[in-house]
Structures are given as structure tokens and as C-alpha cells.
Amino acid sequence: MTFPEFPFPPFLQNPAKDLYIGGRSRLAADGRRFDTYNPGTGEVLASLARGSAADIDHAVAVARTAFTGPWSRFTPAERQETLLRIAKIIEERFDELAMVESLDVGAPLSRVAASKTAIGRVVRYFSAQALQCRGETFASPYQGNVTSMILKAPVGVVGGIIPWNAPLYSIWWILGGVLATGCTVVIKPAEDASLSSLLMAEVIADAGVPEGVVNIVTGTGAEAGSALALHPDVDRLAFTGSTATAREIIKSSAGNMKRLQLETGGKSPDIIFEDANLNKAVPGAAMGVFNNSGQICYAGTRIFVQRSIQQDFLSRLAAFTGSLKVGHPFDTDTVLGPVVSQGQLERVMKYIEIGQNEGATLVTGGERLSGDLAQGYYITPTVFADVTSTMRIAREEIFGPVVSVIPFESADDVLAMANDTEYGLGGAVWTRSLEQAMRMVHGIQAGQVWVNCYGLVDPMIGFGGVKNSGYGWKGGSRHVDGYLYEKAVTINAD
Ligand code: NAD
Predict the structure, then answer these.
(1) Is the Cβ atom of 351 under 6 angstroms away from ligand 1?
(2) Which of 16, 170, 305, 490 has the most CB atoms less than 10 A away?
């Protein structure tokens, strides 16, 4: 099969990629490497250095030195200007960044290209936050010329651990806070998708960020990831990934009581009332789960439909889902690319089998693509009906293009089912009734709730999770506070 011709990204002309520490590429201390694959073809895409505890030690020491070096003398305005320069270079080099991300993650190139605006918005938002690192003063309770204040200072060296589903975007929820506040960072990208993080490090260096401020150590979670979480000289850890790994990280971080920010998994409810505008609710709910082939933490994987419209909704959902083009990420009409890896493919196919064995009805999808695309990790978008809240497909995070449709009778009924989950990341409601919408907004236990839309993220308000979906807010005015520590200062000026 031939795909549209694109110039191979210059960054990948040399497919051997090393660690990025102190502004230079370096081999892993023990020289080991591992391969990363192109999910669209199943072929090896690049060879990465396999960082270990020794490399994490090195990167953290470099980040510690950089923390007190020239970077510490950047004024807030200079940090802001630096972030604005980064935003500009990202825009200039976005075609290459998007192509690398698409080849590595399998996301359709058109989808990644469309994220240019969103990523630029996040970087520019954090440039403004560089000017918002502020403390407080208080009227002193003491007699005399006494002033009480809270100063804020950068916490120091940050460890950032990110997943593979959208690294080009998710890395900025860590780098933004780091660069706005004057911290330094060691990033451990996911083993299945490290390339755009390495390219982003080049962009950051081009914008004038001093050496050692941003370091990237590729490698496995068990080695490099866990060494970073354990490291005694890392002050804060920002983690995005699965709930199971977050639990490990909480334990690993105990040694030096790292400050933690954890964004984890979800099983988000998407609630369709009988008065919803189905012309909007059907595509909205479908893309609320199938976007990025279902590999989005807040994907609306449980669609609750009021029983009176269940049949109509299901037939429309099946028709819409069946019309979604699954294909090579570089094909311009592709809506769903492959899932990220062979392992993820097997995991999702296993859940499709589990759903059928549990007695759910497979309405559409559920197949791995064959023919020209057989070597890639392509799964057709899958709708299950007759799902009950006790089934595993309705309780466990699948992280693939699979949705469970569950009927409900009343608002009380659906809230009880929607909240009957260990997760609390996202949720949505589709209705024309303000009363019903507000009831759901107040009733859904989640860090973000959408009304008559799904998945819109605004860096001004940010997002977070409750329950086993993590803690610590990303975005919004409180974000930079996580990268600062408070210092109570009392001054007797007499
Ligand atoms: P994962 O937890 O397996 O891996 C995430 C990162 O943690 C990777 O870089 C991995 O190498 C590292 N890691 C693994 N074990 C580790 C350990 N013991 N110590 C330190 N680091 C370790 O998750 P994944 O499969 O890469 O990503 C999918 C998960 O991420 C899903 O659960 C998804 O919901 C979640 N996610 C959450 C958000 C959010 O903002 N809430 C966003 C995207 C993805």
C-alpha cells in the first residue's frame, strides 16, 4: 500500500536517539538501547537509549546545578519572554513536531496538526503565569514596626513522568510550570513514545533556555521511571499515567517526601437525556470516546442513555461509528489511527472478548484491520450495548476505541450508576434542560464536567481528578503554586 508522500522528518534522519542531559545528547551510562515502533506499520521507528538509575543520578545532578546557575537569575519577565519564544519556535517547527508525534503515537497527522493551536495556547498561558509567582502580606499581630509575609520560591528539581497517548501536549503541563517558576526538570517519557519529547528539548534549547534546565531520560518505567520517583534530590514529581503506577510512585516518593501531582486513569460517564439534541449528542459522545482511538484519560467510555431514546440513540451511534475511517495516520481522511503498540492492541482485543463473554451485545466494530494494514495496530471503533454496571468493560479502563452503552430511567438512577466507579476524572451531560444539566454538574463526582460538549480543555481553568483519578490541579492560576514553596517571613524593622 502506498501512503501520501511526506518528507521524512529531519529529526528522524538519524533514527538513533540518545538521552538529553545538560544540553547534549549522551549514550546511556551502560550503553543499552531499545527500539520504538511505528504503530501504523509495526516497523521499528527508532532506537532509544535505555536510561537507568545511573543516568537519572546524572540528570538530576545536572538539573540541580542548573537550578542555581544562570537560570536562577532570569527575572519573571525574562522567563515569560523565553516561553513566548518557545511558543513561536513550536509554531515554526510544528509540521516536524506533528509528524514525529504521528509516526511515534499513531495519532492521525491531521489530528496532531490541529493541536497546534491548543499547544500554543497552553505555552502562552504559562508565559503569562511567569508573572503570577506572588506571595502575600498580612497585618502583623505584633506591636511595633513588624511585617508578616509569605514569600514563594521555586521548589527546585522536578521529575516529570508522562504517558504515551499525547506527549507533545502533555509534556507542557509539566514544562509550563517548571519554566514559569524557575525550576529545573528531568522528564522520563513513555517508552512507546519518547521522540517528540526529545525534539521538544531541541526547541527549548533554541529558545535560549540554559543547559541543564530541561533534561530527558528515555527508558523503562521499572528502571528510569522508578529511579526518578525514588531519587532523594528530586523535590517534586509530576506524574501522568495509570492509577496502578501512581500507587507505586506514592510509595517511591516517600523517602524524601516529594511533593506529588498525579493525573491518572478514568472511566468517565457521558449522560444522554431524552430531550438532548441527538444531532449533536451522537457525534459528540462518539468522539468523546473514539478521539485518539480512545487513548485519552478522560474519554467518555460509559455512555448512559435514557431508556425512552435508547434504540434511536443506539442506531444513530452505530451508523456514526461505522462511518469513522480507520486508517494510516498520514491518510488525510483518517479519523482513527492505530493504537500505540502491540501490547495495547492485545489488551484492547482482550477486553472486546471479555465484553462478549460477559453477555454484552457487540453492536459494531471489535475487529483488527487486515489486508494492507494488518501489520499495524488498527482496531475498528467498537460499541457494546446491553452493558450492565457490574461488567468489567463498564468498570475497568480499557484505553482503546471501545464504549459501553448503558440504559437508565431517571436522574437519580443515572447519578448512582455514573458515580459507581473508582475513578473521577471527567463526565458530561447532554440535555436541553438547564435544571437537569445543573443537577448533573453538581452530582457527578469528577474533576471536570462538560455540558452539551465533550473534552474541551481551557488552560485558564485547568483540570484535575478526584478519587483514584489523582490529585493536584493542572492549569489555572493554582498550577504554578505547585512548583513554588511557601516561606513565612516576619520582619521587625525597628
Ligand atoms: P503507565 O502508568 O504504564 O506509564 C506512564 C509513565 O510511567 C511511563 O513513562 C512509564 O514508563 C512510567 N512508569 C511505569 N512504571 C513506573 C514506576 N514503577 N515508577 C515510575 N514510573 C513508571 O501509563 P501508560 O500506559 O503509559 O498511559 C496510560 C494511562 O495514563 C492511562 O491510565 C491513562 O488514563 C493515563 N493518562 C492520564 C492522563 C490524565 O491527565 N489524567 C492523561 C493521559 C493518560
Answers:
(1) no
(2) 305
Calculate how far, in angstroms, residue 231's C-alpha sits from the geometric centre of ligand 1: 18
* Cβ of 9 less than 6 Å from ligand 1: no
Q: How far apart are CA 321 and CA 175, in angstroms?
A: 36
User: 154 alpha carbon to ligand 1 midpoint, in Å?
Assistant: 26
Residue whose CA lies nearest to ligand 1 atom number 42: 297
Q: 10-264: which CATH number, 3.30.160.70, 3.40.605.10, 3.40.30.10, 2.40.128.110?
A: 3.40.605.10
In whole angstroms, give the CA distance from residue 476 to residue 462.
5
Residue pointed to by grid coordinates 471501545: 402
78 belongs to the catalytic site: no
pTM, rounded to two decimals: 0.96
Question: What ligand 1 atom has the least distance to the C-alpha of 244?
Answer: 2
Q: Which atom of ligand 1 is nearest to the CA of 297?
A: 34
In angstroms, the CA 454 to CA 132 distance is 30
Banded model confidence at residue 426, pLDDT cuts 50, 70, 90: very high
| CB 241 less than 6 A from any atom of ligand 1 | yes
- Decide if 235 contacts 158 (C-beta within 8 A): yes
Establish whether 101 is a catalytic residue.
no
Coil, strand or helix at 441: helix
2 confidence band (pLDDT: 50, 70, 90): very low
Measure the CA–CA gap between 363 and 384, rounded to whole angstroms. Answer: 6
Distance 247 CA to ligand 1 centre (A): 11
- Write out pLDDT tens, residues 149-187: 999 999 999 999 999 999 999 999 999 999 999 999 999
From the alpha carbon of 190, which atom of ligand 1 is closest? 9
**pLDDT of residue 21 exceeding 50:** yes
Predicted local distance difference test score (pLDDT) of residue 443: 98
CATH number of 269-457: 3.40.309.10
Say if ligand 1 is within 6 A of residue 98 CB: no
Q: Where in the chain are the domains?
A: 10-264, 269-457
Q: Is the CB of 249 under 6 A from ligand 1?
A: yes
Minimum CA distance residue for ligand 1 atom 9:
190
* Spatial distance between the Cα atoms of 437 and 449, rounded to a whole number of angstroms: 10
Report residue 5's pLDDT band, with 50, 70 and 90 as the boundaries.
low
pLDDT tens per residue, range 249-258 = 999 999 999 9
- By alpha-carbon position, which residue is closest to atom 40 of ligand 1? 263
The pLDDT-based confidence of 59 (bands split at 50, 70, 90) is: very high
Q: With 90 as the cut, is the pLDDT of residue 7 above it?
A: no
CB atoms under 10 Å from CB of 182, counted, come to 24
